[in-house]
Structures are given as structure tokens and as C-alpha cells.
Design goal:
CATH architecture of the largest domain: 4-Layer Sandwich
CATH superfamily of the largest domain: Aminohydrolase, N-terminal nucleophile (Ntn) domain
Helix content: 25-40%
Oligomer: single chain
Structural class: alpha+beta
Number of domains: 2
Strand content: 15-25%
Strand order of the largest sheet: 1-9-10-3-4-11-12
Length: 336
């Protein structure tokens, strides 16, 4: 790994940004322009996915920092965030420029470059970063980046260099099921190492892959943001679990269509583990039990779903999955 160090650095927003705070420690809540933060950009050759993970003590950082396009690349633009870096950087990558050339092009024409931090990765896993030169120093504050194989981690207003080192180690060793999980593992590690010295507030996970049908589908695999929360890491994991539960339910449905009812039940139970207590997931589990001929479990799960949401009475009355048990007294009582 190549380490790029800029010790004891705190960025200031250029004075040309009139009316905006020039101090990352003193921004109006909800009107931040300085996204002092830590982030990771990454590429997975196995899935061809590109991703950005980010956390900051600033409102809506996921929306401001993260940009990615399937089959093209990903950009993290932070500190005194120049949000034009995102779409412009992706356009330059699509034109065939390397990440290093993109970084050079974006920063050379930007008079505020000294206040910026930038990371760019392309669909070959090549990466380049930029951290503006020190403008002012405060003891105990760090900014810098680490470039690794198919990824880069970077941050500013950090507790120490260990924040980015911990992020790099975590990403390289993560056994996460998806890129989103691995990005979040890196963010968690950065926070555990001290993170943003100002605390936590917002975060985001963005993962894309090549999209062969852009007119009918999206390149976005995960697009999760927490704009304001006491613990954005906990909330991001909750949101990620909800999306993964949806995937497990889709898998359960497919397995049931193939007649693999035992496997379908297991998949639906996993969905409920990820998103506990959700009435629709419980109702789907009841369907799977009914299809498998497990009448007692089907009735119990259906009753639980109806107790949480009465709409499942009508749904169950019309559902083909319950055809074999519709005449049972227990089933009829549930629908009364």
C-alpha cells in the first residue's frame, strides 16, 4: 500500500465562498459546506462493482461526497466539498482519462483546491487521491490517505493517522457478504480508531455495477444514506439489513417456485433475522409454511402477521398459497 501523509492538516473553505463558514468546527447545522470526513472508494474485480462509503460530523454527507457510475468509476469529494468534482470526474473517466489524470485536471483548474480532498477510482481498480496543502495546523488533527489494491481510504479532521490505517486493514481483511458490507466494515474500523474528532452525524453507502439495460434498470446496487443520526453506523447497518432481507425474500420466492419449500422457509427465516418483526415478511413465511404443508406453522405465522396488520386477512383470503388450508376452521377464524 502507498501511504500519502499530510500531518496535522485542517482545511479551510476559500473566502470566495461568501456567506459560508470557513471553519469546519463552526458550521450552521443543516447548512454545512465543509464535509470533514473519512471515506473509502473501492472496486471489486469479481463482481465489477464500484463503491463509496463515507461518514462525517456534517449533515447529509452521503449525498454531497459520493458519486459512482457502473462500469466507469467512483469519486469521493470532501473537505471543502466541490460537488462538481463528482459528475465531472465520472465524465472524464468515461472519456478514457486515468484517475491520476482526472485528479490533475479537476484540481489544476480549481482555485479552491487547497481546501479539497479527493479520491478517484476507475473500473480497472486504478486509484488516485489528492489532499490540499496545509493551510493551518491544529495539534492532534490529521488528514491524508492510503491507496491500496483496488481501493483508497482518505479523511481529514481525524483523530490520527490510525483512522485511515484501520480502515485499510478492515477493508482488506473483511469477509463481508457484499461490497456494501465491506465498505461499512472499513467505516466502522475508522470510527473505532477515533474517526472524525468532532463526532458522528451522517453517512452513506453507494455501490454500482455495469448496467446492460440503462433504459429499464439502474446501475445502483446499494444507495443508502443517513443524513442525521446519533450513530449513523448503526443506522446504516439497519438499512443495509432491510435491503438484504428483501433479497432473501426474493430468493425465498424463487425457491418456492422451484418447489424447494424447505430451502424457501430457511431463506424467509433469514429475512426475518435481518428485519425482525416485519409483518409482510411474517406473512410471506406463512405462505412458505402453507406451501410446504406445515399447517400449524402456517396458521401461527399468519395469525402473527394479521395481528400486526389487518390487511393480511384479505390478502390471505385470495392467496393461492393457502388454497390447501382455506377450509380449515383455524384459517377461517383468522379471517373473521
Amino acid at each position: 500500500m502507498k501511504t500519502i501523509l499530510v500531518p496535522l492538516l485542517v482545511f479551510l473553505i476559500p473566502a470566495t465562498l461568501l456567506g459560508q463558514s470557513t471553519d469546519p468546527y463552526n458550521q450552521a447545522p443543516g447548512a454545512e459546506t465543509f464535509f470533514s470526513t473519512f471515506s473509502i472508494v473501492a472496486y471489486d474485480p469479481a463482481t465489477q462493482e464500484l463503491g463509496v462509503g463515507v461518514q462525517s460530523r456534517a449533515f447529509r454527507t452521503g449525498a454531497a461526497v459520493s458519486y459512482a457510475r457502473g462500469g466507469v468509476g467512483a469519486v469521493a469529494t470532501q473537505a471543502a466539498t466541490n460537488q462538481s468534482y463528482g459528475p465531472r470526474g465520472l465524465a472524464l473517466l468515461e472519456m478514457g482519462l486515468s484517475p491520476a489524470e482526472v485528479v490533475k485536471h479537476l484540481t489544476e483548474v480549481d482555485e479552491g483546491r487547497d481546501s479539497r480532498q479527493l479520491a478517484v477510482i476507475d473500473a480497472k481498480g486504478r486509484v488516485a487521491t489528492y489532499t490540499g496543502r496545509p493551510i493551518t495546523q491544529r495539534p492532534g488533527v490529521y488528514a491524508g490517505s492510503i491507496e491500496g489494491k483496488n481501493f483508497s481510504v482518505q479523511g481529514n479532521t481525524l483523530a490520527s493517522e490510525e483512522v485511515v490505517k484501520a480502515m485499510a486493514r478492515a477493508y482488506e481483511t473483511s469477509k463481508g457478504e457484499t461490497m456494501a458490507h465491506r465498505l461499512l466494515d472499513a467505516l466502522d474500523a475508522g470510527q473505532a480508531a477515533g474517526g472524525d474528532i468532532r463526532g458522528m452525524q451522517s453517512g452513506g453507502l453507494l455501490v454500482v455495477r455495469p448496467n446492460p439495460n440503462p433504459t429499464t434498470a439502474t446501475d445502483r446496487v446499494f444507495d443508502l444514506r443517513v443524513d442525521d443520526a446519533p450513530d449513523p453506523f448503526k443506522e446504516l447497518r439497519r438499512l443495509l439489513n432491510i435491503q438484504m432481507a428483501g433479497r432473501q425474500t426474493q430468493r425465498s420466492t424463487q425457491l418456492a417456485m422451484e418447489g424447494k419449500f424447505s430451502e424457501a422457509i430457511d431463506a424467509q427465516k433469514q429475512a426475518l433475522t435481518l428485519n425482525p418483526g416485519h409483518d409482510q415478511l411474517i406473512y410471506t413465511l406463512a405462505q412458505r409454511y402453507a406451501q410446504a404443508g406445515e399447517t400449524r406453522n402456517a396458521i401461527a405465522s399468519l395469525g402473527e402477521a394479521i395481528s400486526k396488520n389487518k390487511r393480511w386477512k384479505q390478502q390471505a383470503a385470495d392467496a393461492a398459497e393457502f388454497a390447501k388450508i382455506k377450509e380449515l376452521p383455524e384459517f377461517k377464524r383468522l379471517l373473521q
